[in-house]
Amino acid sequence: MDGFAATSLSPGVLPDDEAGEPRSFLDRLFDGGLLIRTGVDGLYGRSGAFESVVEAVDRLATGLGAEDGAEALRFPPAMARTAFERSGYLKGFPNLAGTVHCFCGNEADHANLLACLEAGDDWTGKQAASEVVLTPAACYPLYPVAAARGRLPADGLLFDLQSYCFRHEPSLEPTRMQLFRMREYVRMGSPEQVLAFREMWLERGTAMMAGLGLPLAVDPANDPFFGRAGRMLANNQRNQGLKFELNVPVNSVEKPTACLSFNYHQDHFGLTWGLEQADGSVAHTACVGFGLERITLALLRHHGLDLAKWPAAVREKLWG
Amino acid sequence: MDGFAATSLSPGVLPDDEAGEPRSFLDRLFDGGLLIRTGVDGLYGRSGAFESVVEAVDRLATGLGAEDGAEALRFPPAMARTAFERSGYLKGFPNLAGTVHCFCGNEADHANLLACLEAGDDWTGKQAASEVVLTPAACYPLYPVAAARGRLPADGLLFDLQSYCFRHEPSLEPTRMQLFRMREYVRMGSPEQVLAFREMWLERGTAMMAGLGLPLAVDPANDPFFGRAGRMLANNQRNQGLKFELNVPVNSVEKPTACLSFNYHQDHFGLTWGLEQADGSVAHTACVGFGLERITLALLRHHGLDLAKWPAAVREKLWG
């Protein structure tokens, strides 16, 4: 896959580090008003300027896929708990999930809750799990919907998704938010169909990011599976070439940030959801995911916090 | 406030009821592919067509406020739990809140969780409350941010917000979703400043909705405070004229749907958050909220499920 490393990953040193900037990137984003503190690591407000970049990157992704005839669907940031349970997410990533819990009591219970709150005691113990769970990746709500439509047509199916996603991993790296937006294209069909889709997006995504003036490399990757058993899953995923990430140095040169990912799920979701190809064999799936906040942060890190001063060619690509 | 009822609320009968349509509005939205079932009442996917209306209504709201110089901020769909606890929301609406809970265990706990799941037992009991809570209204994350900036300038402040919001009220009325988007303008300042703001938006919002060909009425309203004590709060709110809603018949003529709301909080949030006017006195606040899904559903109910067949004047307003 080295052919996809269209430009050199390592700028050697990031622009503001070179300038001797003593503050962390996150602090500079706060000071510049681009992100807004909430008191929780990884949970931030966004300024209008920040959002204008997110929207422009989202439009770029729309433009790149415009000729493919994808069906656009938009799901809210939570999904049905029954579908979440069946998805297998809890096997691999129990620590990242966010279940939504609610108060189901009467007026006396309410009085107790408020007394707990007033006393500074824990009031959350009696919250009960609701029927929804926060969406961990934009495509998770899609598979049961697609499976409910019956067998795929001979050409397979292609979907266009975008959603806020939740992962419980509080961090001081601005690129590791607990709530962030993921744009995705998802392909369902034969192994050949979905691998051709992934190959096409590896090229498109790399060209898009290089065109935005970002140093990048495409590398084999694995999901952060939980625990010791997870290590084996991660190794398998990496050795089989199932996941690639497009990395850009954002927080540091040494630990670049995955801004896009290109994933071949084989028949995992097909088996999980009973998704069938036209001939009745199990469907394969693949997706490309754009981390909209991460791409925005990469642009801010490399071109500076003042959008008006970004290179004209980059501004032209984003805002025409 | 009767002056704001620019057109008659009651069309007598809704267009498709008149046509003898036997299916519920929700079923027709599913059948037409505009909303997508998830198995949970009030939690739906949206089609590309549905989203195109949401986005157009959002742009209309942007256009109406464009000259006012509001500061745009966008928060993710959850907020800090400490801020949520301090906000007072749990006093009024404990039953609507959604707390986010996470797994904090080790590998043995994970094995137990998966065994519970496999056996069909409840695996959620050991999830622990995280530091975030789903956002109940777009302006809730704003107040602590504004208060942290210090005293308001003499002209006060004006913010432009939009966010997915969560309310735990499963329902078969498509207008009562558990996750929906709220666009808001929020004004902070003196009582005169914030009341003038609310008056201006009562006029703008009414003109916008009448211009979209929707029958409407503006009525005094109250929030759905919990329990018996809540009834007194609701009566006070209504008697003091603190809340008005712009209602459109969507599910039925008898029970019209609040599509916009116009709220004067008096000094509630000012006192809660220590928000001060330029002279050090407590700040008053007001907001106008646009229920983006509700307005979209009102348009679909009155103009039909085929956007291409909507009246030319309505299409012109939405898509130029």
From TrEMBL, chains A, B:
It comes from the Bacteria. GO terms for molecular function: aminoacyl-tRNA ligase activity. The lineage of its organism: Bacteria, Pseudomonadati, Pseudomonadota, Alphaproteobacteria, Hyphomicrobiales. CDD domains: Gly_His_Pro_Ser_Thr_tRS_core (cd00670). Keywords: Aminoacyl-tRNA synthetase, Ligase. This is Amino acid--[acyl-carrier-protein] ligase.
